[in-house]
Specification:
single chain, 188 residues, alpha/beta, Double Stranded RNA Binding Domain, Arc Repressor Mutant, subunit A, 2 domains, two-stranded parallel ribbon, DNA-binding
DNA sequence: GAGACCAGCAGGG
DNA sequence: CCCTGCTGGTCTC
């Protein structure tokens, strides 16, 4: 349901790194992902990270520990899988709220919020995103913040293309292309 | 507070 | 293609 035209994504700012992250590695149509959840406010299962597994599970878990050194990490296949099942099911009718917990400065949060405002399948350039935020000169800063996004797919940084046509993507340009192709195939 | 770092961009050769 | 200047938030001293 994440690809619905207007997914009801709710961004929950975190003040500090979470004490406990429950995580699991699971399969999706785009490959294996590592997904983590935290308790945030009234949401028990707020998604705080989605990484693609590029090399091995072991490498990805190492990344997880490096990125979140202050958080206790607990493997919890069952509850993570049940959240992921809803998220990735091919059901446009399901429009439940998707809570996402994020840790970042105000500026970064506003960039991520702007990304979520993009429609499924719609792309835009870094400068267009900066303009949309009312900060037309802060292009490089926007790019910086986009790169710090922890929640692949749900915070759709794959919908950003650079003006010169290059399709760089943290998780590889072929994955970016797959995501965009999938999204535009749903538009009809 | 200084200086380096960036998934940008436009312009010039 | 490569180089340059401009830009602004964040991180590390």
């Amino acid at each position: 349901m994440w690809f619905n035209e207007k997914p009801r994504i709710c961004l929950i700012p975190l003040e500090n790194p979470p004490e406990l992250i429950r995580f699991s590695i699971l399969a999706t149509k785009f490959g294996r992902i590592l997904m983590g959840m935290v308790n945030a406010g009234q949401h028990e299962d707020a998604i705080c990270l989605i990484y693609f597994v590029e090399k091995s599970d072991k490498e990805t878990l190492k990344e997880l520990r490096q990125r979140w050194p202050k958080s206790e990490l607990l493997q919890d296949d069952k509850s993570v899988q049940s959240v992921a099942d809803k998220l990735f099911e091919d059901n446009k009718e399901n429009n439940d709220v998707i809570p996402i917990a994020i840790l970042g400065t105000e500026f970064q949060q506003s960039v991520w919020a702007a990304l979520i405002g993009l429609k499924s399948g719609e792309t835009c350039t870094y400068s267009q995103l900066a303009e949309r935020m009312g900060r037309p000169n802060a292009v490089r800063a926007v790019a910086n913040a986009v790169a710090k996004n922890e929640v692949a797919i749900l915070i759709p940084c794959h919908r950003i293309v650079s003006q010169n046509g290059a399709t760089k993507y943290h998780w590889g340009s072929s994955l970016k292309q797959q995501l965009l192709t999938f999204e535009s195939s749903l538009a009809n």
